[in-house]
Amino acid sequence: MTQFANSPLRHWLRFDVEETENGALYSISPDDAHIGNPLIKALHGGVVSTFLELAALHELRRALGSDPAGEAININVDYLKSVRLSPLFARAHIAKAGRRLAFIDCIVWQDNEDSPAAKAACSFLLHNRRCVLPGARLTSPEEAAPRGIFRN
Question: Would you indicate the residue range of the signal peptide (predicted)?
Fold first, then answer.
Protein backbone atom coordinates (compact mmCIF):
# COMPACT_ATOMS: atom_id res chain seq x y z
CA MET A 1 0.00 0.00 0.00
CA THR A 2 2.94 2.25 -0.63
CA GLN A 3 1.29 4.50 -3.24
CA PHE A 4 -1.77 4.93 -1.07
CA ALA A 5 0.28 5.77 2.04
CA ASN A 6 2.05 8.59 0.20
CA SER A 7 -1.07 10.02 -1.43
CA PRO A 8 -1.39 13.82 -1.13
CA LEU A 9 -5.18 13.40 -0.93
CA ARG A 10 -4.82 11.10 2.05
CA HIS A 11 -2.66 13.70 3.81
CA TRP A 12 -5.01 16.58 2.93
CA LEU A 13 -7.98 14.67 4.39
CA ARG A 14 -5.88 13.51 7.37
CA PHE A 15 -7.02 9.97 6.58
CA ASP A 16 -6.12 7.39 9.21
CA VAL A 17 -6.71 3.65 9.68
CA GLU A 18 -6.93 1.82 12.98
CA GLU A 19 -7.15 -1.95 13.18
CA THR A 20 -9.82 -3.07 15.68
CA GLU A 21 -11.30 -6.43 16.57
CA ASN A 22 -14.26 -5.53 14.31
CA GLY A 23 -11.98 -4.80 11.33
CA ALA A 24 -10.52 -1.56 10.10
CA LEU A 25 -11.84 1.75 11.43
CA TYR A 26 -11.19 4.65 9.07
CA SER A 27 -11.18 8.28 10.17
CA ILE A 28 -10.49 11.79 8.99
CA SER A 29 -9.92 14.93 11.04
CA PRO A 30 -11.46 17.75 9.01
CA ASP A 31 -10.48 21.41 9.27
CA ASP A 32 -11.76 24.70 7.83
CA ALA A 33 -10.45 23.81 4.35
CA HIS A 34 -13.02 20.98 4.20
CA ILE A 35 -16.08 23.15 4.92
CA GLY A 36 -18.71 23.38 2.20
CA ASN A 37 -21.28 25.52 4.01
CA PRO A 38 -19.63 28.14 6.24
CA LEU A 39 -22.95 29.24 7.76
CA ILE A 40 -23.45 25.95 9.58
CA LYS A 41 -19.84 24.71 9.41
CA ALA A 42 -20.85 21.60 7.48
CA LEU A 43 -18.34 19.56 5.52
CA HIS A 44 -18.44 19.68 1.73
CA GLY A 45 -20.20 16.67 0.22
CA GLY A 46 -17.14 15.99 -1.94
CA VAL A 47 -15.01 15.54 1.18
CA VAL A 48 -17.51 13.01 2.54
CA SER A 49 -17.76 11.09 -0.76
CA THR A 50 -13.98 11.07 -1.19
CA PHE A 51 -13.61 9.70 2.33
CA LEU A 52 -16.14 6.95 1.54
CA GLU A 53 -14.29 6.04 -1.67
CA LEU A 54 -10.89 5.97 0.07
CA ALA A 55 -12.24 3.79 2.89
CA ALA A 56 -13.76 1.35 0.37
CA LEU A 57 -10.58 1.28 -1.72
CA HIS A 58 -8.42 0.74 1.36
CA GLU A 59 -10.67 -2.14 2.47
CA LEU A 60 -10.29 -3.70 -0.99
CA ARG A 61 -6.52 -3.31 -0.84
CA ARG A 62 -6.47 -4.96 2.59
CA ALA A 63 -8.33 -7.93 1.11
CA LEU A 64 -6.21 -8.18 -2.04
CA GLY A 65 -2.90 -7.46 -0.38
CA SER A 66 -1.77 -5.42 -3.37
CA ASP A 67 -1.33 -1.83 -4.46
CA PRO A 68 -3.07 -0.73 -6.62
CA ALA A 69 -5.91 -3.20 -6.23
CA GLY A 70 -8.51 -1.77 -8.55
CA GLU A 71 -10.27 1.30 -9.78
CA ALA A 72 -13.71 2.65 -9.02
CA ILE A 73 -16.23 2.18 -11.80
CA ASN A 74 -19.32 3.29 -9.87
CA ILE A 75 -19.96 4.97 -6.53
CA ASN A 76 -23.43 5.79 -5.21
CA VAL A 77 -23.45 8.01 -2.14
CA ASP A 78 -26.50 8.71 0.01
CA TYR A 79 -26.15 11.74 2.28
CA LEU A 80 -28.32 11.06 5.31
CA LYS A 81 -27.61 14.19 7.33
CA SER A 82 -25.31 17.16 7.49
CA VAL A 83 -21.74 16.49 8.66
CA ARG A 84 -20.23 18.86 11.22
CA LEU A 85 -16.64 20.00 11.51
CA SER A 86 -15.54 17.19 13.83
CA PRO A 87 -13.85 13.79 13.34
CA LEU A 88 -15.54 11.48 10.87
CA PHE A 89 -15.39 7.67 11.03
CA ALA A 90 -16.11 4.93 8.50
CA ARG A 91 -16.30 1.17 8.15
CA ALA A 92 -16.27 -0.69 4.87
CA HIS A 93 -17.52 -4.19 4.11
CA ILE A 94 -16.90 -6.27 0.99
CA ALA A 95 -20.43 -7.25 -0.01
CA LYS A 96 -19.33 -9.44 -2.94
CA ALA A 97 -16.06 -10.13 -4.65
CA GLY A 98 -15.84 -11.75 -8.05
CA ARG A 99 -13.04 -12.41 -10.49
CA ARG A 100 -13.20 -8.99 -12.12
CA LEU A 101 -15.46 -6.88 -9.91
CA ALA A 102 -15.78 -6.16 -6.20
CA PHE A 103 -18.71 -4.50 -4.46
CA ILE A 104 -18.10 -2.67 -1.21
CA ASP A 105 -20.56 -1.01 1.17
CA CYS A 106 -19.34 1.78 3.40
CA ILE A 107 -20.91 3.93 6.13
CA VAL A 108 -19.75 7.19 7.70
CA TRP A 109 -20.71 8.58 11.10
CA GLN A 110 -19.56 11.11 13.66
CA ASP A 111 -20.81 10.44 17.19
CA ASN A 112 -22.56 7.10 16.92
CA GLU A 113 -22.03 4.27 14.43
CA ASP A 114 -25.76 3.49 14.64
CA SER A 115 -26.55 6.96 13.29
CA PRO A 116 -24.77 7.19 9.91
CA ALA A 117 -24.28 10.53 8.19
CA ALA A 118 -23.72 8.98 4.75
CA LYS A 119 -23.43 5.61 3.08
CA ALA A 120 -21.98 4.41 -0.19
CA ALA A 121 -22.19 1.43 -2.49
CA CYS A 122 -18.95 1.16 -4.48
CA SER A 123 -18.03 -1.02 -7.45
CA PHE A 124 -14.39 -1.62 -8.37
CA LEU A 125 -12.77 -3.18 -11.42
CA LEU A 126 -10.04 -5.47 -10.12
CA HIS A 127 -6.50 -5.48 -11.44
CA ASN A 128 -5.40 -8.41 -9.29
CA ARG A 129 -7.71 -11.41 -9.47
CA ARG A 130 -6.39 -13.33 -6.49
CA CYS A 131 -7.85 -12.34 -3.15
CA VAL A 132 -7.84 -13.62 0.38
CA LEU A 133 -10.43 -11.91 2.52
CA PRO A 134 -9.34 -10.71 5.98
CA GLY A 135 -9.32 -13.56 8.46
CA ALA A 136 -9.19 -16.29 5.80
CA ARG A 137 -6.26 -18.71 5.86
CA LEU A 138 -5.93 -19.94 2.30
CA THR A 139 -2.73 -21.39 0.91
CA SER A 140 -3.64 -21.70 -2.75
CA PRO A 141 -6.11 -20.25 -5.26
CA GLU A 142 -7.77 -23.68 -5.56
CA GLU A 143 -8.79 -23.52 -1.89
CA ALA A 144 -10.56 -20.23 -2.57
CA ALA A 145 -12.79 -21.56 -5.37
CA PRO A 146 -15.35 -23.44 -3.22
CA ARG A 147 -15.79 -20.37 -1.03
CA GLY A 148 -16.51 -18.07 -3.97
CA ILE A 149 -13.43 -15.97 -3.35
CA PHE A 150 -11.12 -14.86 -6.16
CA ARG A 151 -8.87 -17.15 -8.08
CA ASN A 152 -6.64 -16.69 -11.12
Answer: none
